[in-house]
C-alpha cells in the first residue's frame, strides 16, 4: 500500500517516548506527524477527538460539522491553528491535511469517504461502513484506487481481549462453533425516543438540507437529527447495523468467514409508541457455511441477554461456550464432549447419570478482563499510515460485516429467506430484494462511481 505522509517536526520528549511504545513492533520515521481533520464532531466524533488527542503522532488540523455548538466544543479540545469549515468539502481542500476521521450519520459515509480518498486523504470511517451494500462496494473500489489507509471503526479488532478470544476460537479451544448468538438489549419501553412533531424547529443555523444530503428529503424532526437518526431508515440501518454490524464483524473475524449464505428476519415495532421507523423487537438469522448466527434486538427488555450479563456475543462450540464483550470474555467448558449419549431405558436408569457424570472438562474455564479498545484502534490507524501498512479493520472487511447487517434489514422488509451470492453481491432467489442494495441519491447529489 503506498501512502505519502508529510514529514513534520515532532519534538516533545513525552511524545517521543509514547511513540516508541506505539511503534514497538513497527518501524517508521522519527519525526512524523499526521495532520488530521474531523468530519462530524458529535457524540462519536467527540470520543474520537479525545482518543486521537491521546496519540502524540497526530496534530489536529481541521474540523467540520453542521452544528455550531459541536464545532465550538471541539475547538475547545484543540491547540494551535485549526481549519474550521461547516462544509466538509472545503476541509478536504486543505492540502496539508493527511487524513480525515469521519463520524457523521451513516447516509453520509459513502460520499465523504470517497471524496476524501479522491482528495488524497487517509480515512478513519466510523461503522457501519455504509447505508447500502452498493455504497460499500463503491467505497472499497475508491480505497483500492487511491491506495490510502482506510480503517473502519469496528474497534474490537484492536482490542487485546477480543484478539485473544478470536485466537482461541481459531485454535479450536471451544471446538467446532455451530451456533453464535448476538444480543443488543436496551429497555426503551414505553416512551422510546418520544413523539416530537415533524414541524419541531431545527436548532438555530442547522442546515437541514445539508444534513439530509443524498437521502430523500424529510421534514425536520428532532428525532431524525442528532444521535437519534439511528431510529430512521433514511439515515441508518437501525440497531442491526448500529450494534449488530460490530458483533457480526467479530463473528466474521473469529470464524474466518466474510458472508452469510442466507438470511431471514422477523420483528417489528410491537409495543413502543414513538415515531421510530426501526423495529423494537428483531431477530435476524444467518446461515454461514458451518455455523448458524443470530442477531437479537430487544428494545423492550434488557435484564437478560447473554447468559452472562454484560456480554453481547455467545459462541457455542462443541468443547465450550465463549461469552464476549468488547473488553471481557469468559469460557464455560463443556463436560459432555466426546461421551456417547446412551439410549434411555427403563431397565437401567443409571446409564444417564453415568453419562452426565462421566464427561471430561476439555478446556479451561477462563475469564479475561481488559480495557476499552478505542484508543488502540485509533493508534493502529495512525501507525498504519506511518508504517504504510494495512490497518486492523481494512475496508473490505468492514464492508463485508456491514453487508451482513444490511441484509438482515432487507430480509425483514421483504419477509423472505434470502440467498446471498457474496461474489456478485446479489440476492439470488429474490429479484426485488436486489433493488434495496442501493437507493437513488437526491439531486444534486450523485451516487459515487
Ligand atoms: N464505533 C462505535 O462504537 C460508534 C459509537 C457511536 C457512534 N458511531 C458511529 O458514528 C457515526 C456518528 O454517530 P453519532 O452518535 O456521533 O451521531 P451525532 O448525531 O451525535 O453526530 C453526527 C454529527 O455529524 C454531523 N454532520 C451531519 N452531516 C454532516 C455533514 N454533511 N458534514 C459535516 N458534519 C455533518 C452532525 O452535525 C453531528 O454533529 C454513526 O455512523 C455511528 O454509527 C460509532
Sum up the structure in keywords.
449 residues; alpha/beta; Rossmann fold; Dihydrodipicolinate Reductase, domain 2; 2 domains; ten-stranded mixed β-sheet; six-stranded parallel β-sheet; 12 helices; 16 strands; 30% helix; 18% strand; disordered N terminus; binds nicotinamide-adenine-dinucleotide
Overview of the structural elements:
Helices cover 30% and strands 18% of the residues. By secondary structure, it is α/β, with parallel strands linked by helices. The chain has two domains: 13-158 and 375-394, Rossmann fold (3-Layer(aba) Sandwich), CATH 3.40.50; 160-371 and 400-437, Dihydrodipicolinate Reductase, domain 2, CATH 3.30.360. It has a ten-stranded mixed β-sheet. The chain is globular, with a radius of gyration of 23 Å. It binds nicotinamide-adenine-dinucleotide. Residues 39-45, 64-67, 70, 88, 103-106, 108, 126-127, 153, 155, 210-211, 213, 226-227, 242 line the site of nicotinamide-adenine-dinucleotide.
Which ions, cofactors or small ligands are bound in this entry? nicotinamide-adenine-dinucleotide
**Widest beta sheet: strand line-up:** 14-13-12-11-7-10-9-8-15-16
Q: Radius of gyration, Cα only, in angstroms?
A: 23 Å
Count of DSSP E strands?
16
